[in-house]
């Protein structure tokens, strides 16, 4: 299994936002979408602030693959549904990183967004 390097984790963790593009059925990249990203240890997590109806989120459900850009990091990723038992820890990471944005933070901590929590695993 491929893992994030320390440099990649630092770059992603320090980035205010991440851009993600899903991979379509034909292997082409969809449009880039700017989203929030958090780390929990050596893992990277994202959520759809607007819940499962968001276009980029639905796009990731097709092939569970995408490409991300954050800071100086650009990487192909596998998108994996996160273990729901981790949601409280991921909530805490979002709260710590984005507490300066209380209105948006409330949405990303809501049940609709929590139901879309995904781990991003690097691909070769």
Strand order in space, largest sheet: 2-1-5-6-7-4-3
CATH topology-level name: Pnp Oxidase, Chain A
- Structural domains: how many: 1
Shape: globular
H-E string:
HEEEEHEEHHHE
Low-confidence stretches: none
Structural class, by secondary structure, is alpha+beta
By CATH reckoning, the class would read: Mainly Beta
Helix content: 25-40%
Instruction: Round the mean pLDDT to the nearest integer and report it.
Output: 95
Give the tally of β-strands: 7
Classified in CATH, the superfamily is Electron Transport, Fmn-binding Protein, Chain A
Protein name: DUF2255 family protein
Pfam family, one: DUF2255
InterPro entries: UCP028498 (IPR016888)
Feature tags:
seven-stranded antiparallel sheet; 124 residues; single chain; 33% helix; alpha+beta; Pnp Oxidase, Chain A; 5 helices; globular
Structure description:
With 124 residues, this protein is an alpha+beta fold. It has one domain: Roll (Pnp Oxidase, Chain A), CATH 2.30.110. Helix content is 33%, strand content 29%. The chain has helices spanning 6-14, 55-63, 87-98, 102-108, 111-114, and strands at 18-22, 33-35, 37-40, 43-46, 65-70, 73-81, 118-122. The protein has a 7-stranded antiparallel beta sheet. A hairpin with a 2-residue loop joins strand 5 and strand 6. The chain starts with 5 loop residues before the first helix and ends with a strand.
How are the SSEs ordered, and which strands pair?
Layout: H1 6-14, E1 18-22, E2 33-35, E3 37-40, E4 43-46, H2 55-63, E5 65-70, E6 73-81, H3 87-98, H4 102-108, H5 111-114, E7 118-122
Antiparallel strand pairs: 1-2, 1-5, 3-4, 4-7, 5-6, 6-7
Protein name: DUF2255 family protein
Organism: Streptomyces chilikensis
InterPro entries: UCP028498
């Amino acid at each position: 299994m491929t893992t994030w390097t320390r440099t990649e984790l630092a770059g992603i963790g320090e980035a205010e936002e991440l851009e993600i593009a899903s991979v379509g059925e034909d292997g082409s990249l969809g449009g880039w979408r700017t989203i929030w990203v958090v780390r929990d240890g050596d893992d990277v997590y994202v959520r759809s602030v607007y819940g499962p109806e968001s276009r980029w989120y639905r796009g990731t459900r097709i092939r569970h693959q995408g490409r991300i850009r954050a800071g100086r990091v650009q990487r192909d990723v596998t998108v994996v549904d996160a273990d729901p038992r981790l949601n409280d820890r991921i909530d805490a990471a979002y709260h710590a990183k984005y507490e300066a944005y209380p209105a948006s933070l409330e949405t990303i901590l809501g049940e609709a967004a929590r139901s879309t929590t995904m781990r991003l695993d690097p691909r070769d």
